[in-house]
Amino acid sequence: MPALKIIFAGTPDFAVPALAALVASQHEVVMVLTQPDRPAGRGMKLKASPVKELALQHQIPVLQPETLKDADIQAQIAAVEADVMIVAAYGLIIPTSVLNMPALGCYNIHASLLPRWRGAAPIQRALLAGDAETGVTIMEVVPALDAGAMVEKGVLPITERDTAQSLHDGLSAMGAQLMVKAMDTLATQRSLPAEPQDEALVTYAAKLQKAEAGIDWTQSAEAISRQVRAFNPFPVAQAKLNEDICRIWMATAMDGNAEPGVVVSVGDAIVVGCGQGLLRIEELQMPGGKRLQAAQFMAGHALKPGDRFHSVLPQA
Question: pLDDT tens digits, residue range 151-206?
Fold first, then answer.
């Protein structure tokens, strides 16, 4: 099987397993495109992206333009004469002229079962919507958002305890495996069979807004549980407790009935009434404090049945 010369375009943690898998494969990653170093942490010092850090460990040339429209940048990309470009959560628009440079095309790892959940937050939107499963689609990159024909798919069931973080990690690993499989096929056959997306089935995964993090206790426990888990680790679901904003990191739905927001029982979990069903809160955090399991939280907070959590609703 011939080896492919690959340009890899990616930035966050999600893209790291795919780059690592390609580095470990027989193919050659000849260039990495990643976003410029950004200020991070308390000191706001410039920090390299996770993809850049991995590329440097393997002595792969790294290019970090603010835009790919610059003629000099495009010339540098063209000069490596790559067979293929792979994109994984890169975060910059790739001009058509750059997409056309690799001889065998450009492919993207997208964290949903396309055409469902095109866009910025497919993992979180699948959780919020109560989807039974999510997955990864390897697709051709085209100028329109996540609209390319599909070449590989993998399915991941969504459990009642999955968070955006757990699904992110599972999909990231799955995407890496599927991409290497696709590249092995491409190296042998010089093309990949592709299935067009059904435009009638398209849904869009809008970027998460912090205003969505507020819990409305008149919602069902099932909906609130999905909200809590979809917003873990960001932006974290919030409710009011004793006039303070309490961040809720893990919660599952239970059968039962109680007034919305009212604490039913405390112990290994804090059980709270909802519009329908009960919410079993397992992990939470008060301002200035650490994330705590419910039992640890109870050791330092005088919470008792009959106390109330209040909704945090978006400002009009």
Answer: 999 999 999 999 999 999 999 999 999 999 999 999 999 999 999 999 999 999 99
Binding-site positions read 112-115
What span, in angstroms and rounded, lies between the C-alpha atoms of 110 and 267? Answer: 41
C-beta separation of 128 from 227 below 8 A:
yes
The CATH number given to 210-310 is: 3.10.25.10
CATH for 5-205, options being 3.40.1350.10, 3.40.50.170, 3.30.750.24, 3.30.450.40: 3.40.50.170
Q: Where in the sequence of the chain do the CATH 3.40.50.170 domains occur?
A: 5-205
Per DSSP, the residues of 216-278 read -TTSBHHHHHHHHHHTTTTT-EEEEETTEEEEEEEEEEES----TTBEEE-SSSEEEE-SBSE
- The model carries a pTM of 0.95
Annotated binding site for (6S)-5,6,7,8-tetrahydrofolate: 112-115
Q: Which 3-state string (H, E, C) describes 60-100?
A: CCEECCCCCCCHHHHHHHHHCCCCEEEEECCCCCCCHHHHC
**Residue range(s) of every CATH 3.10.25.10 domain in the chain:** 210-310
